[in-house]
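Hi all, posting the design record for the shared folder.

TITLE: backbone redesign
STEP: 1 of 1
STRUCTURE INPUT:
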């Protein structure tokens, strides 16, 4: 470790703690300023123009589009220096948004924040692949998923409290990435083979990446759409409780998944998690009472809390050491594609009712699961259709 980290022997965290803190810092990209969006709109444009929402989702869009490319670029860098630089850039671009005189400045800073966040996620995920194996890797991933989930709640609450002092104040939360950068500078991250031009084999990764994107879409629909449900629209506190319930159950499930895996076969756990997500979506779409929506949120949270760490582990196991950073970029892209998809689905389908996005996604997921289960029987029909169309 560096001299700075050695001077604080009682405070210096382990490498896994730094990885968890870095991943949690990435969650701030949207969570930290979400409560301040209406104030931001009013201050910078004098009306609810929608640019505040664009600024909120822009980092997710950048990560979705640039994640794979960023992953390959981070593989070419010294992992320690790159990790520290990415965390400092996250803090810098994040705080920069708080000084925005208008939306052009704000949007540019959010683009930079998205690029920095993608880099942080790539370095952190690649470090897990390089440093840990077997049961230890599984535990690190499980804890990472849980801490990210809990971190999202903490940052939203802190952002809400700070926004009472003005829309610019929550941007100071991004400075929390700086102490993480300090401690990251004290470790040797044992980088994978430095072959930044090597691309991972996508064949074994397509299904788990799609699973991550779809699971995140289902989970992220809750904060996006829950406040508009009839049973919750008149009571923001109840909407917050519903969102918090999903988040809390998801974090607890991720934290305790190791014990669950010891008692139940992995395949059964995965099937049950997918079933919980689909059932939760249907219940949310049809729920007419607060109790029904709370149950639905917990089902969605439990399913997501299982699927995310389980699928990330599967992706890492299928990847090669020399493509760890590039694979991490794909994971980040899939995660944030889910967030963007949830926002787009809510915007496009909510005209059919507040619950319509949940029902539409449940139907789509059920169809995907059915087609996958029957893929062997349907494959000849697919070849026949392709030949006749051609």
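Okay, here is what came back for every position:
SEQUENCE:
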């Amino acid at each position: 470790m560096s001299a700075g980290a050695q001077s604080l022997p009682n405070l210096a965290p382990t490498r896994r703690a730094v990885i968890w803190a870095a991943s949690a810092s990435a969650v701030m990209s949207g969570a930290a300023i979400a409560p301040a969006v209406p104030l931001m709109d009013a201050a910078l444009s004098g009306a609810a123009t929608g640019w505040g929402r664009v600024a909120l989702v822009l980092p997710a869009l950048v990560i979705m589009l640039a994640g794979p490319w960023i992953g390959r670029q981070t593989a070419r860098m010294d992992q320690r220096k790159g990790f520290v630089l990415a965390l400092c850039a996250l803090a810098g671009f994040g705080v920069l948004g708080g000084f925005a005189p208008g939306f052009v400045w704000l949007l540019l800073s959010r683009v930079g924040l998205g690029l920095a966040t993608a880099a942080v996620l790539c370095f952190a995920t690649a470090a897990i692949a390089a440093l840990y194996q077997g049961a230890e890797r599984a535990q690190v991933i499980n804890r990472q998923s849980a801490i990210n989930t809990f971190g999202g709640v903490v940052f939203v609450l802190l952002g809400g409290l700070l926004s009472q002092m003005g829309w610019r104040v929550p941007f100071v939360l991004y400075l929390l990435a700086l102490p993480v950068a300090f401690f990251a500078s004290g470790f040797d991250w044992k980088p994978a083979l430095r072959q930044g031009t090597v691309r991972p084999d996508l064949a074994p990764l397509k299904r788990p990446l799609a699973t991550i994107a779809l699971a995140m879409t289902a989970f992220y629909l809750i904060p996006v759409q829950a406040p508009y449900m009839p049973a919750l629209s008149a009571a923001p506190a109840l909407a917050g409780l519903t969102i918090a319930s999903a988040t809390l159950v998801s974090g607890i499930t991720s934290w305790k998944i190791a014990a669950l895996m010891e008692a139940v076969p992995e395949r059964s756990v995965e099937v049950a998690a997918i079933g919980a997500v689909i059932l939760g979506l249907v219940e949310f779409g049809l729920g007419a009472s607060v109790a029904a929506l709370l149950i639905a949120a917990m089902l969605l949270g439990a399913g997501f809390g299982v699927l995310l760490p389980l699928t990330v582990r599967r992706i890492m196991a299928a990847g090669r050491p020399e493509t760890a950073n590039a694979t991490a970029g794909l994971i980040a892209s899939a995660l944030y594609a889910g967030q963007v998809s949830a926002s787009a689905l809510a915007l496009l389908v909510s005209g059919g009712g507040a619950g319509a996005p949940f029902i539409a996604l449940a139907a789509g997921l059920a169809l995907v699961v059915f087609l996958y289960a029957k893929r062997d029987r349907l494959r000849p029909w697919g070849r026949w259709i392709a030949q006749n169309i051609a």
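COMMENT: DSSP finds 16 helices and no strands in the chain.
Let me know if anyone wants the other runs.
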